[in-house]
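Revision sheet: structure tokens.
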Amino acid sequence: MAGGVERVLTAKANYFADKLGYHITIILTEGKGKPLFYPLSEKVDVVNLDINFEELWSCSFFKKIWLYLRKQPVYKRKLKAELMRIRPDITISMLRREVNFLTKIKDGSKKIGELHINRAHFRTEESENPGIIKVLFAKVWMMALVPKLRRLDRLVVLTDNDREAWHELSNVVAIPNPLSLELSAQSPLTEKRIICIGRYCHEKGYDDLLKTWAEVQRLNPEWRLDTYGDGDKSSYELMADELQIDRSRCTLHGRTSNVEHEYMNSSIAVCSSNYEGFGMALVEAMACGVPVVSFDCPWGPRNIIRDGEDGLLVENGNTHKLALALASLMQHPEEISRLGQNAIVNVRRFEIDEVAVRWKRLFEELSIDNYEL
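Predicted:
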């Protein structure tokens, strides 16, 4: 587990186990025998069903279907056996492949689905041109999904905008992701460094970021850009060279296990995403006192950033406006400081103590005393 969703899941599991005394079990399908990327409380149990759905990632579209049809029955059988063994009071699904059968498992638990991406992009292809077959497949899949979500006891989404998007459902509640960093300081905002953290994929808009930086670097030769994330960055490395970006001032790094350290050595964070489920990287940057300049993409940034108060929002996809906003901020350190100080205050609404209250209230509404995941 190495992504943002996994980091948030770990933070919530640790909090409910250590702070509130809940009995937590995390059930995994991948990474059998591998160490967990984020530290997990000793009070949290982990069960790995060893399904290895990751095998599908490197296959052609039609081979993916074949492998899926082989693995899905095995997953259903193993998950059902585990839930019948544990007998949890509540089961929370991250709405992956188990969404097709989870509510049919009669283990006595209430079923909650937790969605970390907005509706418009749930289970769609991340590539820019997915092709007609994949688009049609996604549409058919979505039509079949709504009745399954209706059978859940609750569907939890991250923003009010996305709650409203599921207009066919009456069981949807909005609870944001909690800040998962435990901060001991804030950035001094002295480094002339811009940071971006997120997977190297179409969703995160690294192509737009590089176009933006190609324009910004000419105006601000003392500043540099550093990006961090999982995924294949080779196409973006090639693009950076094609845009004649000064690579001594722009580095595309792999993932980092110490995001706090990177934020503490930055003065501005940038988000060039085409869309966001929420935008955990924005919350983390702001908690470190680093103001964020972001596209106003659906749906996360506008639910986190208060434009002109604790960060800046610009027209979605407009790289020239993003470049102008960054360049203006880079030339006014006093404005960076003002936005950063406001960000520290405003982002407190996402601290885990605050978010956990909302989850606990949901559990109590379902008349649950103990929590199993």
